[in-house]
């Protein structure tokens, strides 16, 4: 078998996709349940599926990747050069930042490598494609992908998957974890959203929060978002509310911290400022309904006033 590469879009008709994945700066390969060899993620393009859609599906199914950047790289043809029997496909590159559990299908495990191992399922294809990547370097334009679980109105996971940025079907919800941060001295942390955020740009909100990734527990997501957006490492989180709003299923937590107030960190493209306000000032701001998500805190704030 031989494998040839072509400029992206040249071959026109495609049967397969291949994803050259990187995780933690190393090559990420998968091992099939019935094989002892290692392979890139990839497979058939299904009916009515674009190569990009197939690449996202195969990457999740064969590696458990739930957060990553992906980009088309080149076209390829693999087959018998003498008989011309073979098939063409599109090659993608992916930089994975978070791995979840591998779905129960064909793959047994994933593993990272500094270099391609000797035991490869498709040595001619894998070697040729990674050699092409070494020669030309990574693509310049990437698309971020984040996978979410679908939740029902009762807060249960339905088993379906959502992709961040794509339309959420009616009656479906994605999970969001929020953290209300109070200092041991009683002051409340407010964060100002980035001016280029699509929702509520430049507005103030309480603490931190964000989408729960596929397979991620709410409390783990809350801790992750809190650390990413503020630099606060939470020792303990107390659940304070859960509610449906729009197409989101929110679960809120209380974090009491003793960190140095000046040590709060801002996350690039997420927040641009922060401030600590005393309880009285917070309640005054809250009563004006100028805080993002203030209604979700209604019951908690009512109890906190006492």
Low-confidence runs of at least 5 consecutive residues: none
Total beta-strand segments: 17
Number of domains: 2
Provide the β-strand percentage band: 35-45%
Please state the CA-atom Rg, rounded to the nearest Å.
Answer: 23 Å
CATH homologous group name of the largest domain: Nucleoside Triphosphate Pyrophosphohydrolase
Mean pLDDT across the residues is 94
Give me the CATH fold name of the largest domain.
Nucleoside Triphosphate Pyrophosphohydrolase
Give the overall form.
elongated
| CATH second-level architecture of the largest domain | Alpha-Beta Complex
Per DSSP, the total helix count is: 5
Order of helices and strands: EEEEEHEEEHEEEEEEHEEEHH
How would you summarize what this structure contains?
With 306 residues, the protein is of the alpha+beta class.
Structural summary, described in words:
It is a single chain. This protein is α+β, with helices and mostly antiparallel strands and 306 residues long. It folds into 2 domains: 2-141, Nucleoside Triphosphate Pyrophosphohydrolase (Alpha-Beta Complex), CATH 3.90.79.10; 174-305, Nucleoside Triphosphate Pyrophosphohydrolase. Helix content is 19%, strand content 41%. It has helices spanning 51-63, 123-136, 218-230, 279-287, 298-305, and strands at 2-6, 16-23, 26-32, 38-39, 41-44, 65-79, 86-99, 107-113, 143-151, 157-163, 174-183, 188-193, 204-206, 208-211, 238-245, 248-257, 271-277. Strands 1, 2, 3, 4, 5, 6, 7, 8, 9 and 10 form a 10-stranded mixed β-sheet that branches. Strand 6 and strand 7 form a beta hairpin. It starts with a strand and ends with a helix. The mean pLDDT is 94.
